[in-house]
Design brief:
By secondary structure, the protein is α/β, with parallel strands linked by helices. It has six helices and seven strands; from the N terminus they run H-H-E-H-E-H-E-E-H-E-H-E-E. It has helices at 10-19, 24-43, 61-67, 80-90, 123-135, 164-173; strands spanning 49-53, 72-77, 92-94, 109-113, 137-142, 177-180, 183-185. The protein has a seven-stranded mixed β-sheet with strand order 3-2-1-4-5-7-6, with helices on both faces. This is Class I SAM-dependent methyltransferase.
Length: 199
């Protein structure tokens, strides 16, 4: 029997984000603050632009704007529901991760977010899109990804339990360098980093 493609529809977001409350608002606010502070530390200025790939309903947008009201946010997701319902108000657009093999919707962003996405992608889709994310990152990427070694709780439908080394190899091959806590330094900024800033 052919497997059905996972649907990121209203029921999905209701179950995992409204009723299930994955992480909650306070946890999200802490992640946003961490990502912004890390990017600003390395850029040595306030974050002005954010590209959110796999943005869902654009949950990062409000806490980002609360911290930096003038920043420009753009999000992309494969969910027709999320983009159809929230796209116009939250600047969300339709794209699959692999589309970033060629898609260049903006100049390199100060902060690239790809949170809770990569462990649901087939390896070939991840490999197609990841170099594009590296090109589109001018500062820091927050690549929140869960691995086989983690005791993460949440949506296991379509989850690929790969070892952490699988992702490290791919991120580094794309030119990113680890900063810790899901943060990765843009290839453009790696030459200026000191030895102990890199994990």
């Amino acid at each position: 029997m052919p497997c059905m493609e996972k649907r990121y529809d209203r029921d999905y977001f209701d179950r995992w984000y409204r009723r299930g409350g994955i992480g909650g608002r306070q946890r999200l606010a802490r992640k946003v603050a961490l990502a912004v502070a890390t990017a600003e530390y390395h850029l040595e200025r306030p974050v002005r632009t954010v590209l959110d790939v796999g943005c869902g309903e654009g949950a990062w947008r409000a806490p980002l704007l609360k911290l930096r009201p003038k920043l420009r946010y753009i999000g992309f997701d494969s969910s027709e529901y999320a983009v159809g319902r929230h796209g116009a108000r939250r600047n969300l657009h339709h794209a699959r991760f692999a589309d970033f093999e060629h898609l260049r919707p903006c100049p390199p962003a100060d902060l690239v977010v790809c949170a809770d996405v990569l462990h649901y992608l087939q390896a070939r889709e991840l490999d197609r899109g990841l170099p594009g994310l590296a090109e589109l990152c001018g500062g820091v990427a927050f690549l929140e990804t869960f691995a086989r070694e983690d005791a993460a709780e949440g949506d296991e439908d379509g989850f690929f339990g790969r070892p952490g080394a699988f992702y490290r190899r791919r991120f580094e091959a794309a030119g990113f360098r680890a900063l810790g806590s899901h943060c990765w330094l843009s290839p453009a900024l790696v030459p200026g980093a000191t030895a102990l800033e890199l994990a």
